[in-house]
Amino acid sequence: MDIDAAIAHIPRLRRYARALMGDAARADDLVQDTLERACQKWAQWRPPAAASADQVQAALRGWLLTLMHNLFANQWRQAAHQRTVGWDETLASGHDPTPDMGLRLDLERALTLLAPQAREVLLLVGMEQYSYAETARMLDIPIGTVMSRLARAREQLRRLMEGETPPRASLKAVK
């Protein structure tokens, strides 16, 4: 199998990246970064032994989504370290990062307000139709964590769709 096999998964990667990032340009960048990483690490991918063509494609898709998750997590961590203004400072300055919250949010906007970890689980299970076990493997977390993140994400998404204002982050100094 060669790298051309990954091309068939680009539409699904784009859909997942778009939902994850909330922005088409950033999502396309994430897909490109994922495919670059796949090219670099292609020798490390091992298809399942004695598997059908469909099982090999499913395993490849899972591997690509895992690469995407890892890149997204790395970018998110880097962005968190580069932020110069915290949530509390932003809110205190009178800047409201969620204008028109009194109106019903559309799904895409509500998804962007979820924590990245919650959004990942919700998208993998809800949109991509992966099982809890598959999602846990892709994200390298326990199944119980998948289940609890999914439950919290669904509840927060429901509240956002009903027009509730997202909770404001309040960071506490720990000594």
What this model shows, in words?
The protein has 175 residues and is mainly α. It is 63% helix and 0% strand. It has eight helices and no strands. Helix 2 packs across helix 3. The longest helix is centred in the middle third of the chain and has 30 residues, at 53-82. The model is unreliable at 84-105 (pLDDT under 50).
Helix proportion of residues, in percent? 55-70%
**Per the principal axes of the C-alpha atoms, what is the gross shape?**
globular
Order of helices and strands: HHHHHHHH
**Main sheet overview:** none
Uncertain stretches: 84-105
Rounded to the nearest angstrom, the radius of gyration is 18 Å
| Alpha carbon gap, first and last residue | 54 Å
Quick one: how many beta strands?
0
Mean pLDDT: 80
Task: Classify the beta-strand content into a percent band.
Answer: under 5%
Name the quaternary structure: single chain
**Number of helix segments?**
8
Structural class: mainly alpha
